Amino acid sequence: MNSAPEHRRPSDDEAQQILQSLRDELDGLDAILLETLRQRLVCCCRIGLHKRNHAIPMMQPHRIGVVQQRAAAFAAEHGMSPAFLRVLFELIIAETCRLEDEIIGAPVA
Questions:
Q1: What 3 state SS string does 35-89 have?
Q2: 13 within some domain
């Protein structure tokens, strides 16, 4: 006789409860991700103001490379797709550049 414990399959109701619990967890993580992204953009706006106040050019290609390399290293360390993080950070950086450009180009009060 096999002494391994038997694993029963969850009922449909249990499966739905588990799925809902996982979705609730995902929703919480999404909220954290969105808030973190908002905080990042606020920080970038402060950087834009600093650049404007000190006549520093908006575009900093070296900095973009550093951010992209850090994302690629993170992907490699955590088994994530480097292409996914590259595209994600391209979008984030594009929005950052747009905001900084808007701030730097705004009239000084």
A1: HHHHHHHHHHHHHHHHHHHCCCCCCCHHHHHHHHHHHHHHHHHHCCCHHHHHHHH
A2: no
